[in-house]
């Protein structure tokens, strides 16, 4: 029996989807976020960084959503339901698996932080300066890069049903979290291929079962 250490409203949703997709039995251990939205210290008893997701199976503890998906693919995926076996599909799978946390999520986290900084308590005369600096970073650095990322995803999904090509894979699971995060703050009207992909994701039985157990991401 797997234990999925799940922080509410978090990336662990990806792993619940993968476990459901592979029909593996698991128990969800839920952790509530602290008032500042960070993880409770109790998660550090499971892994030193205390970030979710963390998956445990007997004496094995795996952190990092990409590494967890790879672990499940290597050890519990005889039918290649998570990791495709064709050369081209595998290349796409690998690219998007890494892209999600390497190129996409850092921009979303930066955006969240730079939007949050000016709302924090500070001397009143500093606030407008903090706001101006943060807006400058958002407009000149984060948004242009985020727009490039979204355009690249849209282009890929215009000609690929799933991120790795024809079949749903771990790459869709990994990409689902940042796309849901974007979709939670803006409409995907400008990105019809991404919107159709998200609709297909939500139609998956395994996805619905996962959401039934751990919920779907919603903005803080
Ligand atoms: N790259 C890691 C990121 C893990 C991560 O930052 N998880 C967030 C939840 S979405 C977390 O635990 N945040 C709480 C905190 O930073 O205190 C992964 O993909 O697993």
Q: Stretches where pLDDT falls below 50 for ≥5 residues?
A: none
Give a quick account of the main beta sheet: strands, pairing sense, barrel closure.
4 strands, mixed
Give the spatial strand order of the biggest sheet.
Answer: 2-1-3-4
CATH class of the largest domain: Mainly Alpha
Please state the overall shape, judged from the principal axes of the Cα atoms: globular
Beta-strand portion reads: 5-15%
Pfam families: GST_C, GST_N
Organism: Marinomonas ostreistagni
Family: Belongs to the GST superfamily.
Domain GST N-terminal: 1-80
Please provide a written account of the structure.
It is a single chain. The protein is α+β, with helices and mostly antiparallel strands. It folds into two domains: 75 residues, Glutaredoxin, CATH 3.40.30; 125 residues, Glutathione S-transferase Yfyf (Class Pi), Chain A, domain 2 (Up-down Bundle), CATH 1.20.1050.10. The protein contains seven helices and four strands; from the N terminus they run βαβββαααααα. It has a four-stranded mixed sheet, covered by helices on one side. A hairpin with a 2-residue loop joins strand 3 and strand 4. Helix 1 packs across helix 5. The longest helix has 33 residues. The two termini are 31 Å apart. The structure holds glutathione. Belongs to the GST superfamily. It comes from Marinomonas ostreistagni. This is Glutathione S-transferase. It holds the Pfam family GST_N.
Tags for this model:
single chain, 220 residues, alpha+beta, Glutaredoxin, Glutathione S-transferase Yfyf (Class Pi), Chain A, domain 2, 2 domains, four-stranded mixed sheet, 4 strands, 9% strand, binds glutathione, Glutathione_S-Trfase, Glutathione_S-Trfase_N
């Amino acid at each position: 029996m797997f234990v999925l250490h799940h922080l509410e409203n978090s990336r662990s949703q990806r792993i619940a989807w993968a476990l459901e997709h592979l029909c593996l039995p698991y128990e969800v251990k839920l952790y509530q976020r602290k008032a500042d939205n960070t993880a409770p210290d109790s998660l550090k008893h499971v892994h030193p960084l205390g970030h979710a997701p963390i998956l445990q199976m007997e004496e094995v503890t795996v952190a990092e959503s990409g590494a967890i998906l790879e672990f499940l693919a290597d050890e519990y995926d005889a039918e290649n339901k998570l990791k495709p076996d064709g050369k081209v599909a595998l290349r796409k799978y690998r690219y998007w698996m890494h892209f999600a946390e390497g190129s996409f999520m850092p921009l979303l986290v930066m955006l969240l932080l730079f939007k949050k900084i000016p709302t924090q308590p500070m001397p009143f005369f500093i606030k407008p300066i903090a706001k101006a600096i943060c807006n400058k970073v958002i407009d000149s650095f984060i948004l242009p890069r985020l727009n490039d990322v979204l355009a690249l995803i849209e282009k890929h999904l215009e000609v690929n049903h799933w991120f790795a090509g024809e079949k749903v894979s771990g790459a869709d699971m990994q990409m689902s979290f940042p796309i849901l995060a974007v979709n939670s703050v803006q409409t995907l009207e400008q990105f019809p291929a991404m919107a159709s992909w998200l609709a297909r994701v939500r139609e998956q039985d395994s996805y619905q079962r996962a959401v039934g157990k751990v919920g779907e991401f919603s903005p803080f």
